[in-house]
Amino acid sequence: MGTPPIPIAYRSGTSLAVPDWLNNGDNAWQMISATLVGLQSVPGLVILYGSIVKKKWAVNSAFMALYAFAAVVICWVTWAYKMAFGDKLLPFWGKAGPALGQKFLLKWAALPETTQYNSTGGVETAMAHPYYPMATMVWFQCMFAAITLILLAGSLLGRMNFKAWMMFVPLWLTFSYTVGAFSLWGGGFLFHWGVMDYCGGYVIHVSSGIGGFTAAYWVGPRLNRDRERFPPNNVLLTLAGAGLLWMGWAGFNGGGPYAANIDSSMAVLNTNICAATSLLMWTSLDVIFFNKPSVIGAVQGMMTGLVCITPGAGLVQGWAAIVMGISSGSVPWFTMMIVQKKSKLLQKVDDTLGVLHTHAVAGLLGGILTGVFAEPELCNLFLPVTNSRGGVYGGNGGIQVGKQIVGGLFIIGWNLVVTTIICLVIKSVIPLRMHNDLLLIGDDAAHGEEAYALWGDGEKYDSTKHGNYSDETAHPKLSIGATQEV
């Protein structure tokens, strides 16, 4: 994992399309996993974002997700993949370079500089050595990079200048995401130190949560009326998007071992166990404290469960997945429903979908709990450091918890600093936030398009023809420069 390709000579008479070293089953599963993760973004999060926001922001929110997906694909294959999985430039960063061309369609293996050595100078554990084309690895990891930016966008819905978002995506991918990916997955210092992040609890979820919260601070809040009342425009479509996320997570965590093996099956089962437990826990807390089960709350509980299990999906036993589900359904619930309402800082920063809680808190929680519950034999299949284990298994397990905390703090600190710098650089060129006049109108002002044609054969809403509408923001007759924030 994280190395340039090493060409392997083909046997005489072997088809170039199917060389003897190719594991067809692993390759097929990895491509399926990549597709499942891609479906989480397009159409999964495109649908979820377009339906969970106020009607006037449906197009803009869905478009932010769609744009990020396309932009990441091009940036990833042009320079970013090798920054995350290429030759080492720094202990936490790889050298930039393209992942294009035929040479990337060959078997690959670890080079000495990306291999962990023991005290006697011998190889302790070699890096991952999958038997499928390099193009498969490039595409699989591209889907992880894309969904990270799209998750981050959830903190910025309903007010970010789309042109600023167009600049933000490639900059954040380059200077933030690739650092976390190389450090924990691509042969960087955290990987060799033994920090566990099976499929992105830190690389994807903590980074998107902290990056989104930080960017939300610099972009600024929505209009007061939008913060006070921001109902989903279509709850059923929100559930459809959430369902695509849940089912797609089979590829998210199931593709972690880079093979269709026992560990992959365990990761998929643990993922569903934790997600279901977390959803039930969150819903139960809503009923106990608010006397009403919330559909949106259930979606949040599902999400925190999926996030929490991700750093340990293939490293823990099923009973631990249940414990992690109980934790992920309660701790982020507490930070969102209680701490959020009492903290002046959290109230000041307008994190539209609460990505700080559902991803950063849940991801960090999952990473720490992985350090508690990681099973020794499963660790040996994943880490380059032998005798790694969770705290409950004794030995040096307590050290693992400390490593997990340090790894999480590195991701948090890097994202706080780099996201701040990126936002300030963009702000010097173009406003990060739309003008209040545009915010009051929404999609029609930002894109000249609307999500729903509900009043006839596609024509715009007109109160003289269609009657009064309960939502005063449906189509205010406003001229740019003549409005004030409410």
From TrEMBL:
The chain crosses the membrane at residues 28-50, 62-81, 137-157, 169-190, 202-220, 232-252, 264-283, 295-313, 319-339, 351-374, 405-426. GO terms for cellular component: plasma membrane. It is found in: Cell membrane. Pfam families: Ammonium_transp. Residues 466-475 have a biased composition (Basic and acidic residues). SUPFAM superfamilies: Ammonium transporter. Residues 466-486 are annotated as: Disordered. InterPro entries: Ammonium/urea_transptr (IPR029020), Ammonium_transpt (IPR001905), NH4_transpt_AmtB-like_dom (IPR024041), RhesusRHD (IPR002229). It is a multi-pass membrane protein. GO terms for molecular function: ammonium channel activity. Keywords: Ammonia transport, Membrane, Transmembrane, Transmembrane helix, Transport. Residues 28-452 form the Ammonium transporter AmtB-like domain. It comes from the Eukaryota. Belongs to the ammonia transporter channel (TC 1.A.11.2) family. This is Ammonium transporter. It comes from Quercus lobata (Valley oak). The gene is LOC115964734.
